Amino acid sequence: MKIECKDLERVLREQEPPSLEALARHAESCAGCARELRLWNEISAVAGHMRKSWDSPGLWPRIQQALVAQSQDAARAPRIWSLGWLWGGFARNWQVAAAALALLVITASGAWMLLHNPEPAVEPDTAKRLLNKQAVREVEAAEAAYIKSIEKLSALAGPRIEHPATPLMVSYREKLLLLDAAIAECRANIEQNRWNAHLRQELLEIYQQKQRTLQDVVGEE
Amino acid sequence: MRRSDDPAKQVTPSAANARTAVGLEEDSALAEACRTGSLSAYEQLYQKHGARLKSIALNLLGNVHDAEDAVQEAFLKVHRGIRSFKGQSAFSTWIYRILLNSCYDLRRKKQRRQETPEQDLEPQGTFEAPAAATDHPLRLALEACVARLSPHYRNVFLLFEVEGFSHSEIAAMLGISEASSKNMLYQAKRKLRRLLSESEKSVKSEPS
Fold first, then answer.
1. A22: nearest Cα among A37, A39, A41, A44
2. pLDDT tens-digit profile of B116-160?
3. What domains are defined for chain B?
4. I need a labelling partner for B81 at 20 to 30 A (CA). Which of A58, A154, A208, B92 fits?
5. In 3-state terms, what secondary structure has residue A196?
6. Does the residue A66 lie in any domain?
7. Residue B46 is nearest to which of A13, A52, A60, comparing CB atoms?
8. How many domains does chain A have?
9. Shared-domain flag, residues A26 and A122
């Protein structure tokens, strides 16, 4: 194989052993190519000394420990996942469930009180519209429980409602504002006539709506 | 796998092929053992490739601490991904590819932490390496110049010239063709030659 100066770059690029041997032969009679080839080989020779070697007695034990930990994590992963999922679900839902239960109790007791008033204190035609003292106390206690339950839900839903991130949350926020206005209005009317069964029933229904809305907000992922 | 500079140590093609075949057989046996999760298999892997993995990591990351972290991370990735290794390439090639990725991930993380612009994933300025037996001035100059190469050129140069991998191995590791590997090495050496001569001129021009 005959190599000339113009072949130098190609041979160095292709690095085919026969061509490199031919280039070395050519360099014996060509000072320019000899210099190029010498510099080229010098880089390779010095690069061989760039290989780093040092003792690291702690490295393998460290790797071994990390491998064992990783294996253990991998073995635990499915169980952790299922427990985590159950726990996460429980943690997410118990407050909602508690609020729903409170709502059920309140609604049932409220309904019972309204439908089975044992001692009508007034005339039969007005009994449907007016409550006696005992019934008012019980309804007010039920309302207080409702408010407490709503407050808990409001605390959970608070950040989502204060800074709504989706159009749905904006709608919930508007609905809650309307419900709050309705509650305020209803309560103002009740202040005028706290014996009015109709107003009390209306207030309980609004509370119920607010509670459901808050439950929806909290349940929304 | 390292190419020998010593002609006396050079082997005939048939002997080399036989050695490669044995190497591949050992490779796949080790991969199989690692697949079972055997820690002794990983220890064997470390004994066989640890030194070279550390050297590559140090040349890419510039300090021993990060290099060892990268090697550890590479082992963990191998452990996590061994089931996905189907033997399309040699096991060792796969491990080195994982190491290279670990090095780049580590550097990216460090750069993000330092909130410096991620330009070319250049190694850190200082090179805290173990003291070499012979601190040849040309070697130090070459190291500084290699750090200025672009990542692709640097990888090919380090893997071929420093670590002694063949172009076919480098091609498999970096996911490029053998021709590209050869071309990148050529370009890398050309640039190194230019950088070395520039640094030589600047040293000479400095007043003594």
1. A37
2. 544 444 444 445 555 554 567 788 889 999 999 998 899 999 999
3. 12-130 (1.10.1740.10), 132-208 (1.10.10.10)
4. A58
5. strand
6. no
7. A60
8. 2
9. no
Q: Tell me which residue has tokens 């040699």.
A: B90
CB contact under 8 A, A43 and B185: no
pLDDT digits (tens, 9 = 90+) for A147-199: 888 888 888 888 777 777 777 787 788 888 888 888 888 888 887 777 788 88
* Distance in angstroms (rounded) separating the CA atoms of residues B55 and A135: 85
CA–CA separation, B111 vs B103, rounded Å? 12
**d(Cα A90, Cα A84) in Å, to the nearest integer?**
10
**Taking CA atoms, what residue in B is nearest to A38?**
B193
* Dihedral (CA of A12, A15, A19, A22) sign: positive
For residue A163, give every residue at least 6 positions away whose Cβ sits within 8 Å of its Cβ, in sequence order, or none: none
Domain with A34, as residue range(s), is 5-50
Does some domain include residue A212? yes
Q: What residues contact B34, with CB distance under 8 A and at least 6 apart? A: B41, B42, B45, B78, B79, B82, B91
Q: Which amino acid is at A116?
A: H
Inter-residue contact A204 to A146 (CB < 8 Å)? yes
Tell which of B40, B48, B142, B184 to mutate to test the A interface (max A CBs under 10 Å).
B142
Whether A200 is in a domain gets the answer yes
| Residues A211 and A140 both lie in one domain | yes
Does A140 map to a domain? Answer: yes
The dihedral region occupied by B163, where left means phi > 0, alpha psi between -120 and 50, and beta the remainder, is alpha
